[in-house]
Amino acid sequence: MPWFEDIEIGARMELGPYTFTEEEIIRFATKYDPQYFHIDAEAAKAGPFGGLTASGWHTTATWMKMMIRSRTGREDLPDETGRKPAGGPSPGFLDMKWPNPVRAGDTITYSSTVIEKIEMKSRPAWGIIRSRNIGINQHGQTVLEFTGQGMIERRNPG
Amino acid sequence: MTQPKYYWEDFRLGETVEFGRKLVTREEIIEFASEFDAQPFHLDEEAAKASILGGLCASGWHSCAMMMRMMFDGYVLESASMGAPGVDEVRWKKPVYVGDVLRVRRTCTERRVSKSRPEMGLTKFLIEMLNQKDEVVLTSLGWAMYGRRHPGAPVEGDA
Fold first, then answer.
1. What percent of chain B has pLDDT over 90?
2. Strands (DSSP E) along chain A, which ranges?
3. Which one, of A110, A95, A104, lies nearest residue A143 by Cα?
4. Contact across the interface for A48 and B66, Cβ inside 8 Å
5. A40-73 pLDDT, tens per residue?
6. Quick one: fold of A4-20+57-76+84-153?
7. pLDDT at residue A10 in the model
């Protein structure tokens, strides 16, 4: 996790590809979104997407999984006192679209591009990074896009 | 599939309903976060206490998933649901902690028929997820698609 100050607008992170299996599509949906077109491959054939598809929340949670995976192991630069920046919570997200479904066997390539930096008035030790986050399948079709927000510590508060 | 109980026509403009009861357990918070959002404040009690969140709390994506499940049990299962094109906005307003008991309040803020697909209508729902202290922990605003009981029929009044 870099400091808020070190993040540049326009910077793009490639979060890498992830292949969805039928088993995990059904496992996630069985817990959280058991609509028949997410849990029953046979019944899904007659459904709105013509086959089994992942819950949009599964497609989205996997973006987060890949973001965490990309962050892990990166060296963060401490400041002169040895302090390293902490990541904080997110106030929410905007403008999420699932323009195409994710099917079993699809490989989704995720990315995140910084579009805005906001200094928080209410919490001077923190800033908010806004990013446009995207998932694209092996046919080049977009399956996920949204504007995410995350709080990140500032090296020089206020 | 059995005959749906709720079609697009059954979601009335301005109608508010409450449903769901979800106890949030430590095990489920850690299980979800381990797979999708492995940050210290979702995994480790001590690290969470020292963080800005003040205690072990659910991933925001887990909160969305729990909201979806309460919506499913509350009405989607018995509806002519045709999925959703996305979500306009979600706000994570307060942390969801271990032991919280969540429920959902749904308000229909807009509705219209599909011009290209006469068998389908769209509703915009404001979803508020509340905890046992009646605090709103999450709000979500977005369109969802439902089959119509009377495809292509003229729609009066509030549509």
1. 88
2. 12-19, 92-97, 107-119, 126-136, 142-153
3. A110
4. no
5. 999 999 988 999 999 999 999 999 999 999 987 6
6. Thiol Ester Dehydrase; Chain A (3.10.129)
7. 97
Q: What does pLDDT average to over chain B?
A: 94
Q: Which residues of A98-134 are buried (b: 16+ CB within 10 A; e: fewer)?
A: bebbbbbebebbbbbebeeeeebeebebbbbbbbbbb
Q: For residue B44, is it within any domain? A: no
Number of structural domains (chain B) is 1
Predicted pLDDT of residue B158: 47
Span A137-148, average pLDDT: 98
Q: In what order do the strands lie in the sheet with B101-113?
A: A12-19, A107-119, A126-136, A142-153, A92-97, B86-92, B136-147, B120-130, B101-113, B16-23
Give chain B's end-to-end CA distance (angstroms, integer): 28
Average pLDDT over residues A33-38: 94
Shortest CA distance from B138: residue in chain A: A92
In the block, which residue shows the tokens 């409450």? B18
Cβ distance of A32 and B81 shorter than 8 Å: no
Contacts of A68-76 spanning 24+ positions with Cβ under 8 A: A68/B36, A68/B37, A68/B38, A68/B39, A69/A15, A69/A16, A70/A13, A70/A14, A70/A15, A70/A16, A71/A1, A72/B38, A74/A1, A76/A1, A76/A2
Q: What is the mean pLDDT of residues B131-155?
A: 94
Would you call B76 an interface residue with chain A, using a CB distance cutoff of 8 Å? yes
Kindly list the domain boundaries of chain A, sorted by start residue. Answer: 4-20+57-76+84-153
Domain that holds residue B12: 8-25+60-147
CATH of the domain at B128: 3.10.129.10
Residue B65 is nearest to which of A57, A91, A94, comparing CB atoms? A57
B143 touches chain A (CB under 8 A): no
Q: Which of B39, B62, B84 sits opposite A56 (nearest CB)?
A: B84
